[in-house]
Predict the structure.
Amino acid sequence: MPSSYDGDSTTTNTTMHQVLEGLQNSQGNKEIPFSLLYDKKGSELYEEITKLEEYYPFLAEDHMLELHVDEIAAQIPPHSVIVELGCGTARKTAKILSAIQACHGRCRYAGIDVSGPFLEEAYKNLMQNVDGLQHEDMDMVQADYMEGLKIVRERYPHENVCILWLGSSVGNLSASAAVQFFRDAVAAVGTHCQILLCADMWKDQERLRAAYYDKVGVTGLFIKNGMRNALALLGHEVSTKDEESWVYEVDINKHLHQVEMYLKFPTDLKLPQHRVHIRAGERVLVEISRKFTVGDFNHLANESGFVIDMAWRDQTWGMQMLIPFK
Ligand code: AVI
């Protein structure tokens, strides 16, 4: 597998400082960085989530790609480098790369992920499933997103870079974090930057609750795993019994248009050496999943300095796929 692949360790750059910042808060909600959800176990649980029948975002995105992939490929200038953020095993990517290959006769791809094993699988997947893809046009970069973007830009100093950000992941960032994220991405890539992403749309509460409070309980396990990782960073190993006692709760925030995933602690958890005290009955916010109205997304693009060039909307699933250009 070419370039920047350095073995099979799963890394996260989330620091103890970030965890403490969220857990020492005694005024508002305590929270942890959502990046802690995606260690090896968390990534496996997320893969399970995407197979749940009530988790519509995965199916919806797949369906939209199926319908629009040729039009999408035509919007991406020839000779562009497709850079995928958090490519995982690249389950949906082959569709896009095949369409680009068919439309432009060549496709250059860089997959960025923190997990070495996922990058390896993604590489095999793509080489097997995209006709005509060349080994020398592939880069698998084990890094976090911004570091990965800089590495890709160094390798391709002049080409148009199309950032591919699937999985409606923009929803996991707060409004201000999303703006910052886009600004940082543009700074890392420089000019000639476009983004192809999916954003889940604000929809009825029943459907949202079903998707994030699934019948089998995988989402609860996913969220608990993130909390376990946060406490492990503080040197606190959680027993299975304690973890089972945490109660997974989902709120639908109509004001902010987001699903909020919490854990409620039945008893006090004190880590005096870190000045952390989670009180009995208190909730910790582990993840948000924002659901956009058209206006919400336009606002985000404006704030980030992007112009939305193309948008496809799917009414059945309430999902939109967009290409903002810098
Ligand atoms: C990765 N991300 C877009 C998922 C979502 O829908 O917000 C993560 C997830 N959390 C719980 N279920 C899925």
